[in-house]
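Ticket #4471: complex job returned nothing on first submit. Input attached below:
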Amino acid sequence: DQQVKQNSPSLSVQEGRISILNCDYTNSMFDYFLWYKKYPAEGPTFLISISSIKDKNEDGRFTVFLNKSAKHLSLHIVPSQPGDSAVYFCAALSPGAGSYQLTFGKGTKLSVIP
Amino acid sequence: DSGVTQTPKHLITATGQRVTLRCSPRSGDLSVYWYQQSLDQGLQFLIQYYNGEERAKGNILERFSAQQFPDLHSELNLSSLELGDSALYFCASSVTGNEKLFFGSGTQLSVL
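Support reply: We reran it on our side without changes. The output follows.
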């Protein structure tokens, strides 16, 4: 039972355009959401996060939007660059003391075409 | 470079065998997590240790076990291996276990 779903396994975008990666979740107990980026032969690296008390968080070219009522979040990359080509994982965190146990989606492979 | 070191990078073994994966956390990090990424699956949480003690357990099979040593490195032991255990195993660490994780580059396990 996938509690965090990324329904698009892959996405291709032209350089300079906007990339929008989507994520849905089912567990209403999740209160913190993160995006990780993964290049081949490397581990995931933290990209951006958002608390459930916010609906938007921005960091440079990256913006994450959260719609709690729809249990949906999205990552916007503007403008997209070839170096952004990677697998992006959406992850969610349940409240709990002393543990940062993340539930991950299956990932979306983003290809930015020069 | 995240500062988390995993060895070996690749491991090829046969069904029924036992292997040990090793993880050295970032300097100063007390908590270690193990995740499994199977083909076409997201990262699945296996187990977390904090300062030598088990703190949280996820979808870890009984054939798998882990420990964290006094020097804070951790080992994940996989026994009676099956074809379905073939996966990428990631270790991650954090300072107290309750904040952002830093991942190693993983160990690719192939069971033939």
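The mean pLDDT of chain B is 93. Closing as resolved unless it happens again.
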